[in-house]
Write a structure and sequence with these properties.
- The chain is of the alpha/beta class and about 180 residues long.
- The protein has a single domain (about 5-175), classed as Vaccinia Virus protein VP39 (Rossmann fold), CATH 3.40.50.
- It has 5 helices and 7 strands, in the order H-E-H-E-H-E-E-H-E-H-E-E.
- It has helices at about 5-15, 50-55, 70-80, 115-120, 150-155, and strands at about 40-45, 60-65, 80-85, 100-105, 120-135, 160-165, 170-175.
- Strands 3-2-1-4-5-7-6 form a 7-stranded mixed β-sheet.
- Helix 1 (about 5-15) runs parallel beside helix 3 (about 70-80).
- It starts with a helix and ends in a 6-residue tail after the last strand.
């Protein structure tokens, strides 16, 4: 990520007063799909609302973001409940965040080159929850997924929910167990 983009994200996160602990957008109304606990990875966590929500539901959470300002605010709100990783996701996942994870969340960060790492980080039976900007219902753009990108990219997962429209696409999928 460019220095200008990193500075822009730091400014954006520094301007926000507070972010409540909240479930990932694609999991709202589907919270019953969440495993009973274990390890979770929150990719592009920003100010950590989802990370704190996962920690509050019994998960040991690793949270990654490029914004030092976002991570500082998140850490102040969460205490020791989450391990925070300051890392540029354009370089892939941090080596210490290879998994396996029972839940992997990625909200509003789209990098198709990262999709294989997200899949690999999932434990057998693990849940992937991903939401990206989409061209469906919006104009095409460099940061927007074309129609069908998520189900195609994660075709090896059991798709539990998939939506596209109004400029957003999301997928909730479970990694199949080897014996399935």
């Amino acid at each position: 990520m460019s220095d200008a983009a990193r500075v822009r994200w730091d400014r954006r996160h520094a301007a926000v007063v507070d972010v409540a602990a909240m479930p990932p957008d694609a999991l709202r109304g589907r919270e019953a799909l969440l495993p009973a606990g274990g390890r979770a990875l929150d990719v592009a966590c920003g100010r950590g609302g989802v990370s704190r929500w996962l920690a509050g539901h019994g998960f040991t959470v690793d949270a990654v973001d490029v914004s030092g300002a976002g991570l500082a605010a998140a850490a102040a709100a969460a205490g020791d409940a989450v391990r925070w990783w300051h890392h540029d996701l354009d370089l892939g996942l941090p080596p210490d965040c290879a998994g396996p994870y029972d839940v992997v969340v990625c909200q509003r960060f789209r990098d198709p080159a990262l999709y294989p790492a997200l899949r690999s980080a999932l434990a057998p039976g693990g849940l992937l929850v991903i939401t990206v900007l989409s061209e469906v219902g919006e104009e095409p753009g460099r940061f927007r997924a074309p129609a069908g990108e998520l189900p195609a990219a994660f075709a090896d997962l059991e798709v539990l929910a998939h939506t596209e429209g109004d400029g957003e696409a999301s997928l909730v999928g479970r990694r199949r167990s080897p014996d399935a």
